[in-house]
């Protein structure tokens, strides 16, 4: 069997304790070394401090692991040329015995395999701005339409076409709600001008329970705004994104290399501000996800 669930996670799930799934693509591709390892461990500690059990998911030497150890997180964080896999790429990484970071789609799939119902991430993938030319649409969207899971993120990555992505999610039956906000956040920015229904952790748990009882498939996406003290205003982000997109086109970068390139370029343009914001929003999402998980697992709601 190529899936290993840590004893801590296995025990927590069996006892109905609040478990929060965490992705590993942020370790392998989202943050630079050593911030990637430091942040991953700090996010796990955030979950623990708020009364939950973290389950960081990744692939180490071809083994799918749900509940990475500190050593395994460090292995991924120091890996040279690790893979970044969506759901379809999991068997490739397994067969090649590779190290790989799991995206939102792969993490959602594997979390459901382990009966974990709440997942914290930075931001989900979506429809790219030049979709008419490239037809570049993240697997995250299809996967979320299949999974019975609550995903907490700071909205959709702002380098994407946020409005088209939200329309796609609605078509696919993914319920999108705002965590104590009526405006959909766009990763580094708290606003977008797009309205969303506001909920707290108690309402999320109740909605999730009702959805499952009715047999309605699809994830619930909880959009949690970035902390105000590290927010980057929307107009400034748009200026940096458009500059990065122009460089992207000039260099002819396509496919899986697009998102890492754009994030790196925007990091340079922001003089490091986006890295600080990225780390802060991930920790904040882990905190909110743990609050939600505690309510979901309370009184046998799972």
UniProtKB/TrEMBL annotation:
Q: Name one Pfam family in it.
A: Indigoidine_A
Is the keyword Heme in the record?
Answer: no
Q: Which GO terms describe its biological process?
A: nucleobase catabolic process
SUPFAM superfamilies in alphabetical order: Indigoidine synthase A-like
Q: Which UniProt key words apply to this protein?
A: Glycosidase, Hydrolase, Lyase, Manganese, Metal-binding
InterPro entries in alphabetical order: Indigdn_synthA-like (IPR022830), PsuG (IPR007342)
Pull one GO CC term from this UniProt entry. cytoplasm
**Enzyme class of the recorded protein, top EC level:** lyase
In short, the EC number is 4.2.1.70
The superkingdom of the source organism is Bacteria
* Cofactor (UniProt): Mn(2+)
**Chain positions recorded as Mn(2+) binding sites:** 136
The residues listed in the UniProt record as binding substrate, with positions renumbered to this chain, are 84, 104, 138-140
- Carries keyword Lyase? yes
Tell me, what is one Gene Ontology molecular-function annotation carried by this entry?
A: hydrolase activity, acting on glycosyl bonds
* Reaction catalyzed: D-ribose 5-phosphate + uracil = psi-UMP + H2O
Catalytic site positions: 23 (proton donor), 157 (nucleophile)
- Briefly state the protein's biological role: Catalyzes the reversible cleavage of pseudouridine 5'-phosphate (PsiMP) to ribose 5-phosphate and uracil. Functions biologically in the cleavage direction, as part of a pseudouridine degradation pathway.
Question: Which HAMAP family does the entry mention?
Answer: PsiMP_glycosidase (MF_01876)
Q: How does it assemble?
A: Homotrimer.
Q: Which family does the UniProt entry place this protein in?
A: Belongs to the pseudouridine-5'-phosphate glycosidase family.
Protein name, as recorded? Pseudouridine-5'-phosphate glycosidase
In which organism is this protein found?
Answer: Caldisericum exile
